[in-house]
Amino acid sequence: MTGIAVPSLNPPQLRTGGRAPWQFGGFGPLPIAAVVGRRGRSTVYSMSTMDRHGRLADRSVVQSLGWTSGCRLDIQTKGGLIVVAARADGAHDLTGPGHVRLPVHVQRSCGLESGDRLLLAGESADGQLVVHPLAAIDAMISWLHRILLAGGAA
After folding, report:
1. How confident is the model at residue 100 (pLDDT cuts 50, 70, 90)?
2. What is the per-residue pLDDT for 13?
3. pLDDT band at 147 (very low <50, low <70, confident <90, very high)
4. What domains, with CATH codes, occur in the chain?
5. What is the largest CA-CA distance in the chain?
6. Alpha-carbon span 153 to 144, nearest angstrom
7. Using the 8-state DSSP alphabet, how is residue 54 labeled?
8. Which residues pair with 101 in a beta bridge?
9. How many CB atoms neighbour CB 148 within 10 A?
10. Burial of 124: CB neighbours in 10 Å, binned 0-12, 13-18, 19+
11. What is the spatial distance between Cα 95 and Cα 118, in angstroms, rounded to a whole number?
C-alpha cells in the first residue's frame, strides 16, 4: 500500500540570534502574580453546617481552642457576626459531643436557617470563636473587591 505524504507539522523556528525568545523582539517575561505575604495570625478556619437544632457540625475549631464538653459559653452577635467565648458565667454550654449550639435568638438575629453554611474562625490568642454567616462574608468580600479591583489599596 502506498501512502500519501503529509507535510511536517513542526512549528516555525524563531531566528533569535542565540538569545532566548523572551529576550528577543516583542517577547517579554510572563507576569508573576503578586504574593500577599505570609500569615501573621494563627487563626484556625473551617466551614460548617448548622443543623435544625442550631448545632455547628464541625468541631475542629472548638478543639483547637481547647474547649471541652460542658464548657460554659457566652454567645453574642456583633455587626452581623457571632462571637463565642468560654466564660465561667456563660449562659450556654458546649454539648456532650463538643458542638457549639447557637441559641434561637442568635439564629434569628443573623437570619440563619437549618443547613446554612458558616465560616468558623478560632482566634486562639483571644480565646474566641467567631462565626461568619455567608451574608457577612459576602459583605466583606464585596468591600475588599471594590477597594482592590478599583485600583485602591485596602
Report:
1. very high
2. 62
3. confident
4. 44-149 (3.40.1550.20)
5. 92
6. 9
7. S
8. 55
9. 11
10. middle
11. 18
pLDDT (0 to 100) of residue 152 = 57
- Reading the block at residue 86, the C-alpha cell is 468560654
What percent of the chain has pLDDT above 90? 55
Per-residue model confidence (pLDDT) at position 72? 94
Could you tell me where the beta strands, DSSP code E, fall in 3-112? 44-49, 72-78, 81-86, 92-93
pTM recorded for the entire structure: 0.70
Question: H-helix or E-strand containing 62?
Answer: helix 60-64
Cell output for 24: 528577543
Name which of 128, 105, 133, 104 is nearest 118 in CA terms: 133
Closest listed residue to residue 131, CA positions, set 64, 62, 63: 62
CA distance 146 to 154: 10
